[in-house]
Amino acid sequence: MLDIIVISYQNLSLLQNCINSIASNTTYPYRLIIVDNNSRKEVQDYIKSLVSDPILNDKNIGFTKAVNQGIKVASRPYFAVVCNDTEVSDGWDKSLIDTFKEDEKIRIVCPMSSSPQQTVYFDLFHRINHKFLYWKEYVPFFCTMFKRDLVDEIGLLDERFFMYAQDTDYCERTLKKGFKIAVNLETTVKHLHRVSAGKNHKELQQADLERLRMKSY
User: Fold this and answer.
1) Which residue from 98, 208, 210, 217 has the fewest beta carbons nearer than 10 Å?
2) Please, what are the averages of pLDDT over each run of 10 residues along the chain (217 residues)?
3) In Å, what is the CA distance from 38 to each residue of 61, 79, 173?
4) Taking Cα atoms as reference points, which of 47, 56, 87 lies closest to residue 188?
5) CB count, 10 Å around CB of 216?
């Protein structure tokens, strides 16, 4: 039913916590797809101990391209993109998948984030009922679930974005196709926002935001 794409970069303890939370808290059968952006040997050895066919890049190709590598492998009806600085909560996958059933046009579902920097975004949603909110703009792709058929409709993430703004762009493309984006208020996921981003994340963010600004929809 579910493919879980985990993007890894360098931090072994973060990745271990993320993987352990998935193993302990996921309800449905799933396939784990790990994409690593040229981490240290100890990280890659750990990844090899988990899956027989990891995607191990020989350089840091960026978050967006790594996600696309995982999506190309994913084949089940739903897939989730999970950052390595995330720890999922009990039954997270069932809650998100149940959200899709609320409206046939929903194609992207996000949980609430424990990160104060991200919580502010969720105030912009329009409340539909006690469980769900539909957003008019975008959700951050830190632990986000997609219907696989969305990729058939709008394609992969735009690889001109290295690490930031690809979520804004993809959500914009989703909405323009007439689909909906939802947040499940009953599910909160621990996210250590930007812990795995690296020292030059501000420069990368500015460059990606400029690319977004220049892009015409």
Assistant:
1) 217
2) 96 97 98 97 98 96 96 98 96 96 94 68 56 75 96 96 87 94 89 61 61 63
3) 9, 23, 30
4) 87
5) 3
Q: Round to whole Å and give the CA distance between 187 and 94.
A: 10
Per-residue confidence (pLDDT) for residue 120, from 0 to 100:
46
Per-residue three-class SS string for the chain = CEEEEEEECCCHHHHHHHHHHHHHHCCCCEEEEEEEECCCHHHHHHHHHHCCCCEEECCCCCHHHHHHHHHHHCCCCEEEEEECCEECCCCHHHHHHHHHCCCCCEEEEEEEECCHHHHHHHCCCEECCCCEEECCCCCCCCEEEEECHHHHHHCCCCCCCCCCCHHHHHHHHHHHCCCEEEEEEEEEEEECCCCCCCCCHHHHHHHHHHHHHHCCC
State how far the alpha carbon of 109 is from the alpha carbons of 8, 57, 152, 179, in Å: 22, 28, 17, 12
The one-letter code for the residue type at 126 is H
pLDDT of 164: 74
Residue 216: both structure tokens together: 């015409």
Q: In this predicted structure, what is the pLDDT of residue 136?
A: 63
**Phi, psi (rounded to 5 degrees) for 10:** 75, -50
* The architecture CATH gives domain 2-214: Alpha-Beta Complex (3.90)
